[in-house]
Design brief:
Layout lengths: L17 E2 L18 E2 L1 H6 L12 H10 L3 E5 L4 E4 L10 E2 L4 E2 L7 H4 L10 E2 L8
Antiparallel strand pairs: 1-7, 2-4, 3-4, 5-6
Length: about 130
């Protein structure tokens, strides 16, 4: 039997996060999709946000273009890492607000594919029980 965490996590306080189990995802409000998502250029290609031939271009050029399109909110030149844009409420732009499911799941970036093994607290997630509609 699945035991859901009794306490709701605060995404900004990793001490409140629950030990991850894939079964939790079915009951979660997708809090991980409200965390900043850092991606590399190869993720942007997989997501269809840029063409593969642009990998040869200056990443700053790509970042400026994607920022104008409101698809990326930051670019970290030292690590060549882009931060995906989020809605005003903090949700990822690819999170469907009603179902709380990813709209590009098959194309999602490596950061999402490897969560929570990578991230602020490895092996833990910001679990919050999903409200039923």
């Amino acid at each position: 039997m699945l035991h859901l965490p009794k306490n709701q996590a605060d995404p900004d306080n990793i001490a409140t996060w629950a030990r991850f189990s894939p079964k939790l995802c079915r009951h979660c409000a997708a809090c991980c999709c409200s965390l900043p998502v850092e991606v590399k250029a190869v993720d942007l290609v997989r997501m269809g946000l840029m063409d593969e031939f642009l990998l040869q271009e200056d990443p700053k050029f790509i970042a400026r273009k994607l920022m104008k399109e409101h698809l990326v909110e930051h670019f970290h030149a030292r690590t060549a890492t882009f931060t995906l844009a989020r809605r005003a409420n903090g949700d990822c732009i690819y999170l469907e607000s009603r179902s709380r499911r990813c709209t590009i799941y098959a194309l999602r970036p490596d950061t999402c594919r490897n969560h929570p093994q990578i991230g602020p607290r490895s092996g833990y997630c910001a679990f919050r029980t999903r409200k039923t509609i």
